[in-house]
C-alpha cells in the first residue's frame, strides 16, 4: 500500500469516493487488477520514488502518472510493512490462484478422497493469503499458524464429507407428470444440493480460517491511529500517522469480523453460480454431445464470476476503517482525530 511510504504529506486514498460502496468497488478493482502482477522491481521503485516526492511536497498535485504509481504500490505493497506481498498471495493474483482450486472443488462426482484433497489445497491457499495480507501489528507464531491450518482443514473436510454423505442419503421422491409424489426431494433438488456442498464447506471453513488465523489480533489488539485531516485540495487523504495510539482489541474484533463477512460475500457467487449454471448447461444437447467440455466450461464460468465477485466483496467494507474513538476501549476516548474518530488497517 502507498500509505506505507513515509513523508509529511498525505496521499489521496483513492481517485474514487470511498464513502460509497461503488467507489470502494472501483478502488478494489484497481487493487485486484492482474496487470499489476507484471510490474518490474525497477517500476515499483520508481513508483515509490514518485509518491515519496509527492509526500515531501516536490510534486504539487496528483497526475495520471502518479495515480498509476499509486495503483502499482497499493496492489503490491503491504500497508503495514511497506514490503511487497509475495506475488501468488496478492489480491491481484487471487483470481488465478483461486481458479484452479475452485474448479477442483466444484468437479461433479468427486470421491471422498478427492473432496478431502481439494479442501486441504483450498485451506492451504487461504492460510497463505490470510497470513500475507493480515494486519502485521500482531503477527502469528508458526505454532498458531499450524494450529489454525489444522482446525480449518478439519472444519472444511468435516462439512464437505458430512454434507456430501447426508445429501447422498436423501430419499428421492417419485415424479409423475412433472409433480412430486410421496416424501423426499426431487432428483433435480438432490443434484442441486450436491453441487452446493462445496459452497457450504468453503464458507464455514473460511470463517473458521479467518477467525483462527487472525485470532492473535483479537487477543493482542491492533494499532489504531487518530483520523487525520484531509488536504485543502483533496478530501480523500489516507496517510498513516507516524505513531500509534495503542492496540485495541475492539478494533481487532471489528476488523476480523468484517474480513470474515467479505470472504463469505466473495465465496458465495463463485461457489454457487458456476455449478448451477454448469448443471443447467449439461442438460443441453450441445453439452450432451460434448461431455469433455464440462471442465473448460466450468473453469470459464468460475473465471468470469471471480472477475466481478472479488471487487464487489472487497468493496463491502473500507480497508482502512474509521470508527468513533469512544466506541473503543476507555484509553482511546477523547483521543480521536477528525470527527473524534480513529482509523486502523482492517486487512484483506
Uncertain segments are: 230-242
What structural category characterises the helix and strand content? alpha+beta
Number of strands: 6
User: Largest sheet, order of strands side by side?
Assistant: 4-3-6-5
How many discrete domains? 1
The helix tally amounts to 11
Overall pLDDT, averaged?
A: 83
Which word captures the global form? globular
The rounded Rg comes to 23 Å
How far the N terminus sits from the C terminus, by CA atoms, comes to 12 Å
Strand content: 5-15%
Please provide a written account of the structure.
With 348 residues, this protein is of the alpha+beta class. It has one domain. 55% of the residues lie in helices and 7% in strands. The protein has eleven helices and six strands. The strands form two sheets. The chain has a four-stranded antiparallel sheet. Strand 1 and strand 2 form a beta hairpin. The protein is globular and about 75 Å long.
Short description:
This protein is α+β, with helices and mostly antiparallel strands and 348 residues long.
SSE map:
Elements: H1 21-31, H2 41-55, H3 64-76, H4 94-105, H5 112-133, H6 142-168, E1 174-176, E2 179-181, H7 187-213, H8 215-220, E3 222-226, E4 246-248, H9 249-281, H10 285-289, H11 294-314, E5 320-324, E6 341-345
Antiparallel strand pairs: 1-2, 3-4, 3-6, 5-6
Helix pairs in contact: 1-11, 2-3, 4-5, 4-11, 5-6, 5-7, 6-7, 7-9, 9-11
Provide keyphrases for this structure:
single chain, 348 residues, alpha+beta, 11 helices, 6 strands, 7% strand
